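Dear colleagues,

As part of the handover before I leave the project, I'm documenting each prediction I ran so the next person doesn't have to rerun anything. This entry is a single chain, and its sequence is reproduced below.
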Amino acid sequence: MAEIRIENLSKIFGKVKAVWEVDLIVHDREFVVLLGPSGCGKTTLLRCIAGLEHVDGGRIFIGGQDVTDLPVRRRRIAMVFQSYAVFPHMTVFDNIGFGPHMQRMPAAEIQERVHSTAELLHIEDLLDRYPAQLSGGQRQRVAVARALAVQAEVLLMDEPLSNLDALLRLEMRAELKRLLGELNTTVVYVTHDQVEALSLGDRIAVMKDGHFLQVDTPMNIYDRPADHFVGAFIGNPPMNFLTARVVDEDAKVSVAGKELSIASDVANRLRSTGKSTVLMGIRSENIEPIDEPTEGALPGQVLVVEPLGSHNLLTVEMGGATIKVNAHPDSPFRPGQDIWLRPIPEKIRWMDRETGRALI
């Protein structure tokens, strides 16, 4: 078993609370992504799990063992860093075999371990080369292979794909998902790339200012963000947010000066919060663009049309706010044209204007 349990963990640098009183359980063989902007504490938390940073409070357990004060070598972990961190004076074979060699494995077992790991990552033809003779993608595969070769119970990955170009990052992302799915390894993966997080993780832990805002499955993070920050950070384009006034009696809200009907139970729950105005969050793909006045649709004007192949991305001005809407690539919308937008009711996320936290 390689469950990771973090209890009330804090790490402080001077006056900066890099990580503050966080709790997290990464289940055995689960892939958890730590996601957030630069400076949110995700790499610091990973380094605390690895033992590269001394914690200022809380405990860390791996496989039920308290490892808070154990040195790195006794935590049964392997790491892959943002920089390739391969030994330039060693061949690919020796790089991959370095961990097993330090574990004092017999030469025959090291040979077998290196070849089997290289085969998993499709670099078996590169074993006699030196890192300087490899491309960036090949060097990153070597770094991953070196981490896997020690067969650690936990694999920690710190933005391992960020130095690769877009196409290579796409290829390596798919390779990593396939590989780690086959190995059933417990993985904690740090990234600021929300596409990586959504595509790779079993769960995502969204961080900001040293603490978690939401820990959930990728689809729940995307469809049901816990607050304004999560909705705005996840997705391309990010979630649209509009100010809505709760109508006192009817099952309606007023958005951009126009009334929009909502489900009666939703209206009752909004009124029960005591909030007169709320934020209405809606994804661009969950808004139907219509070229004529329609019941349940809000009027606006097209500002920009961006053809993106599979769809057109419209920037629409509505009541002083701008929102993003997906439209079919053959749609007739042009800049300056009037448009009516009908949000899918069950896809709306209602949030508190002051705190940003989800109300429903």
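Residues 166-183 form the longest helix (18 residues). DSSP finds nine helices and 20 strands in the chain.

All the best with the project,
I.
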